[in-house]
Fold each of these.
Amino acid sequence: MAKFSAFGTALLCNGSPIAQISSISGPSLSADTVDVTTHDSSDAWEEVAITILRTGELTLELVYDPAVHSALLDLYENKALEDYELQFPDDAFTAFQFDAYITAFEPSAPVDGALTASMTVKITGVPTLNATYTP
Amino acid sequence: MKIEEALVTYLLAQTGLVSKVSSRIYAMHAPANVKFPFITYRRISTERLLTHDQTHNGLSTPRIQFDVMAKTYQSALDVLEQLRISLQGYRGTMGGTSGVYVGAVLPAIEQHDDDPDNDYYRLTIDYMISHEE
């Protein structure tokens, strides 16, 4: 089993890498469940059934360059549904592909730190979680 | 141009500071028999902002420590004040047109000390200098 450094992970929007990403978290995939426990459930152990598969969100930390990242704010303002691809730096070149909206963008400017921004991308529809990309 | 080189070029162009120490600004240590007052500087640490598309360029923030050495406490304070006026809050290009763009110079620790055996005063101040490299 291989181990990989996270350095080089990329998020592409419509085929173009989003620049100066310092951290990516997500997508926070999760499944909704409904309790189907009954009086005759074995030994009174809880039973559940899965209902909705939640696509979740990605949260990005950016070293914010207002000129470079203005296109992302345009997408936010236009409520634009775009194609995204999260590329992992593994030797199989694994990627997640999905459609998503930008749902949050929050610049941060501490006096003793760098100009950064936090951005949230919300997935909608069926993602492809076993795609590959050509490096 | 490296930030140390740009920094010294910038400081030697500050008339208030030069009036106190002339060109006596040295890396690491001063030469033997140097005239007081004088300044030495050294890089204590370097923080680099990392991104997934990191190249050899980027934002670097070295912590540069300055030691002001003087024969009287008042003289040391005067030099330190000129250093503060020259550096604190500075934003611009250091080292001339082909120099280094500095985004911020912010103060960190400041410490005053003396060495009675050798009869001088030593004032230390660190500055965080954010620049493109």
Amino acid sequence: MISRKLRLTALALGAGFVFAACTNNGATTAPTTPAATGPAATAAGPSTPQVPTGNVSLSGAGATFPALLYQVWIEKFGEANSNVTIDYQAIGSGGGIKAITQQTVDFGASDAAMKDEEIAALPSGTKMLHVPTALGAVVVIFNLAGADGTKISKLNLDGPTIAGIFLGKITVWNDPAITALNADVAANIPATPIKVIHRSDGSGTTNAFTTYLAAVSDDWKNGPGVGKEVNWPTGDGAPGNDGVSGGVKTADGRIGYVELQYAVVSGLASAAVKNANGKFVQGSSAGVTAAADGALADFPADFRAKPIINGAGDDTYPIAAYTYLLVYQDQTDATKGQALVAFLYWALTAGQGEEKAIGYAPLPQEIQQKALEELHQITTGGSAIWPM
Amino acid sequence: MTAGTVAVQPSIAARLTGSRVGRRRTVVDRSMRTVAMLAAFLCAAPLAAVLFYVAANGIGALNLDLITKAPRALGIGGGAANAVVGTLQMVPLAAAIAVPLGVLGAVYIAEFAGRRSARIIRFCADVLVGVPSILIGIFVFTFLVLPFKQFNGFAGAVALAVIMTPVVMRTTEESLHLVPNALREASLALGVPVWRTVLSVVLRTGLPGILTGTMLGVARAMGETAPLLFTALGSRVVNVGDFGRPMDSLPLFIYVNARQPVDALNQQAWGAAFLLLLVVLIINVAVRARSWGRRIG
Amino acid sequence: MTTATTAAARFGRAASRVPDLVFRSTSGVLAWTTVAILGLLAILLLLNSGEVLGTFGISFLTGTTWDPIAGIYGALPFIVGTIASSFIAIVLATPIGLLTAIFLAELAPRRVAIPLTFTIELLAAIPSVVFGLWGVFVLGPFLSKTVEAWIVSTLGWIPIFAGPPFGVGLFTAGVILTLMILPTIVAISRDVITAVPDSQREAMLALGATRWEMITKAVLPYARSGIIGAVILGLGRALGETMAVTMVIGNRPQVPQSVFDSSQTIASQIATTFNEASIGLQTSALIGLGLVLLVITMTLNIVARLLVWRVAGPGEAHT
């Protein structure tokens, strides 16, 4: 039987090759280095973190944005390492930050990087690491039956119009602002009232979406502003990306914002949003990758990146965000720390291969390298769990 | 009676000949009785509607997979085993805490306590029954989750126990009152100590009532969601035996999966709701069937 | 019906031996635990809401803005939402419940009354979350297309009935609450009506009253305080309902302008935001909300029970 170590490394190698091939599409600043230079590609041996033996159970809580991805990851990692049980509760980025700050979980998850105040609220003497795991698109979903009775599946929207809807200024679907952008289907858009569904919990998805709204609308910037929670001028609250997509799905006339994969699994149509180059783009893994590659220069050293809004490029999707796993630099439980590092390593290597199939975008190679190097910083009892 | 007499004294004539006024009262009487009957059926209709929709939507989803498989991504090939297993652990543990607490508490009020103490305790129990369960959740969170920085199934069981105890206490007290004093006196006359009298004679006699209260309390605890939100939290992992970690429950499962955008998960919510409703209604029917015959009349 | 007597009176000197004392003390401690729990709960809520109450004072209750980011906490939207949804429930449930109780207690033949009473009592056993599930997928869409659409089209010019009937919001929550409190109102009203002495009925009938007149002029006035008690108990239950409400009310922390607006209740706000409350005073503010809810429900509960006891005696525990 092939040892787990070898299997993992083989997977990582394979992922590394596939990954290098993929990131060469349209990437301008990412160096076209062969996969062999990544740490994932060195020969099997002590350079990959080991999964501890014996039963380990990890608990995590946080963002719903990547929850669909993490569920797949947890299943696959669990199949490969059946002694490790991981329980991830998707309660929103706000809940994730609170949980890991209060140390009620082993790892947190958030798409909004921790703010300075939140870092200051950490227990004294501790340091939190932001480990980026994936990128996703925030798409505008809607549920609208056309005048002809069938569901409308394509709609163009631009920044000011979206802001107008979420500000409560545009209240019916056949408002001139919307029909002007959709000349070909305008006749089919009925006078249904618009109902906005937004997040009721602290959300990294909200953070990304409101960053976009503030960028495209001064009224939004000076009004509700940017954050994981804002004062929504209109609309109902629902918990989690799942709650918003479920809420939009329940009735006609509703609009909301969710991570791309939620739109896919719920079968809801999402709007084509006008990007910085004036093109109407649907949310997609490629569109997000283009945005990420364009923003590499702005990626901060402490990994706390802002959402990537209105990136340049014809195919770039205008609302993209990194999502993070939050772990303490110093792990108090050695076994759990070991399992955590092994899982993070898997996520950053083999896990990246899972992302495109379900609408997330893998990390740009440069960021993946940095993240893997970050793992070396995780210590327990004074010494690194995965030494360099 | 001539027409002239009627014109002179219309009220008497009216009552005797059943003209407009008398008829109006009859009409009012008949129609209001019909209205009352309609109201009663209007009351019963929602139960039928809820049962119908839950059964119609849930029956397809209630299968062995739902009960034995753990949740999986997008619901494909998954189930509600985490919820079933969680409920099957937390509710019995809650009952194990609430029944001794409630029964012995009722024993104290009914057998030992002075009038004022009994009134105070009874009053507090009644008030506790009316406290919104979400506040019980906050209460237990503060004492059993916060100090340990860990959501856990034990806290969930305790929260359910707090909800069950006053129910068990009050129904037990009532059934103890129904036990004839002669039984107590006979037992004491035979030299049986008080504690033994209470346990073997009084409680044994009042057992049906105690069981009723317990089962009703269990049915209520099974359906509670709010107090578990901050205590057991919920879990996608099938947690067997580890009360120190989060646990799921059928109501929590329904709450989470009702709002999912994935049809398969909504279906599982209906299936779990059907299962929960079946169990709760069966318990209620079985328990109340004995006592409603006595009450109506 | 025996009442509680002291151990001495019931058991005499037999109760003074050691095992009996141990038994008595143990059961006493356990009985007083209930009192302790209630007391601790009240103290806990008071202490932990001290922060937010100290910062805002009375404006905590009157403020209309709930903004954790800016640190402003005004509970009025939730107080209004809670009271409004429960008020709708009471307005709908009282006539229906009272008429039903009258039917079951006075008018129905036994073979109809028994299964019907049974059925209505079972309504009380349905878990809140199941009502919520049904409300989201069945009742909400139904109401938005039928009842709400009709009200909006006929009464929509009155501001309180205005607005698109989305099927989610105050009205739907009110209807679900109606269904949930009907069994309480029916059961207690039925009991107090049954407790009215027959002499009252017979006297009225002897005077030539119709059946209905006998009920409205003799039975109901006699049972009035008990019925009011039943309604108040129902109100108390409606105010504290969490799950069914949170699934259909729209979770909008603003004071609603119309019955078809989305809204938020105290219990629902606590349920949806407590677990991730972390900014500054947020946890204290949510506990403050809990304190408000506790005070309202406890007061109503106490008043109601006193009213019911006056007519029907300190009788069964209506759970």
